[in-house]
Amino acid sequence: MSPHPPVFSAIRQELYDWRLWTGRGVVLAFAALAGLTVVAFTWMTERAFEHFTAFEKGSWWGPLLWTPASTAAIVWLTRRYMGGAAGSGIPQVMAALSPDVPKTSRNLYVSVKLSAAKMLLATWGLLAGLSLGREGPSVQIAAGVMHHARRWLPTRSQVSEHGLMLAGGAAGIAAAFNTPLGGVMFAIEELSRKPEQRSNGLLLAAIVLAGLMAVSVYGNSTYFGVIRVQNLGAALLLPGLLVALCSGVAGGLFARLMVISLAGRSGDWFSRFRQKAPVRFAAACGLAVAVLGVVSHGDTYGSGYGHTRDMLEGNGEASPLYVLLKFVATWITAWAGVPGGLFAPALAIGGALGNDIAHLTSYANAPTLIALGMAGFLAAVTQAPLTAFIIVMEMVDGHALVLSLMASALIASGVSRLISVPLYTALAELQLLRLPAKPT
After folding, report:
1. In degrees rounded to 5, what are phi and psi of residue 392?
2. Closest Cα to residue 349, out of 296, 399, 415?
3. Which CATH architecture has domain 11-218?
4. If we measure between CA atoms, which residue out of 204, 231, 191 comes closest to residue 109?
């Protein structure tokens, strides 16, 4: 019988392998740094939109000049110096994780330099009042920070470059929304698209640690507060089903519109104008967003966070045109080519859709349908239903709505698949076109 049982041998190996502990320390340190970077980005975007709101309230016509000028400047800077910072950021991370991308080309999609550019340009976008979110950019920002950790890992480290980017992208969602479970599911369902590619225990700890950075700064509060769920029963069946179906159709149309317009292969006049004069096209898009903001009395500006929270709390009046106007403003903002995400605007559109159906069907508890609309529309746009329902559940502390949120997300995602291909997968394929041509 061996004097050293296997358990003691394993403990001794754990304690004496300095490379293992150094690698773990580096990963956790960069996870904390990624979380704090997203927290800083959150603070920057919130202050930027506060300044825009004060400016817009002081002169309603000001955005008609400021927004198109800023949009043109952002697109010019992005195209001239930081092409990899354009758009959401999620397709870039998905492209970087693709086996078709050699190691030498991953800096096209994720890097510390791109993370810094993304922070500044997306913040400027909200300072301009554009309809964009910070969650997609947070994915690319955190992935860039985590990707940089590879330079500090010891040789023959067990942590792969792929794992670092996967954990960084998930950490970005976890820190941006304060939804650690949503971050884990996002890594499995959206970034890898393969459940068997789950992060190991160390990378899972990195995701949680990055999320804890947001909690340590902003407190353990939910993103949209706590909704009160009452009288769940048969009365919810018809309105809830209507919300899921409408969210699926609207989200599928939005995803299809995004893929067609960003691919620019339709050959229409707008696509040709965008290709030949992208800066002037961006200015025209900025002017359109400003006009929509004026028509909606400022409701369509920004991410839509304030409007969604007011709906959940029962404050303010909801315009029946908000869904359409926010839909168009978000699409035009993305079409312009500015760095910015879709998650928060998608939640705002879905929430408003649920609120409209609550009024249409006279359903007593509107916040329930608002939450179902948020999960449904986000699931339809991303075609990642598990991520969508978990994120919404954590954002509104809606554990009593777990089954309803799951059903809404699954139905909406299924309807969306009949209308459009998966949005982020299609956009990631467009990102792969930026790779240098292989020598013949």
Report:
1. -65, -40
2. 296
3. Orthogonal Bundle (1.10)
4. 191
Query: Where are the chain's structural domains?
Result: 11-218, 234-432
- Those residues of the chain that have pLDDT short of 50 are 1, 195-199
Q: pLDDT tens digit string along 125-179?
A: 999 999 999 988 999 999 999 999 888 887 767 777 888 888 888 888 888 777 7
DSSP assignments along 61-93, one per residue = TTHHHHHHHHHHHHHHHHHHH-GGGSB-SHHHH
CATH topology of domain 234-432: Clc chloride channel (1.10.3080)
Instruction: Say whether 133 sits in a helix, a strand or coil.
Output: strand
**DSSP annotation string for 281-335:** HHHHHHHHHHHHHHHTTTTTSSSSHHHHHHHHHT-S---TTHHHHHHHHHHHHHH
Query: Tokens 């559109």 correspond to what residue?
Result: 349
11-218 against 234-432: fold identical:
yes
Could you report the per-residue pLDDT of 244-302, keeping only the tens digit for each? Answer: 999 999 999 999 999 999 987 767 788 889 999 999 999 999 999 999 999 999 999 99
CA dist 61 and 51 (Å) reads 15
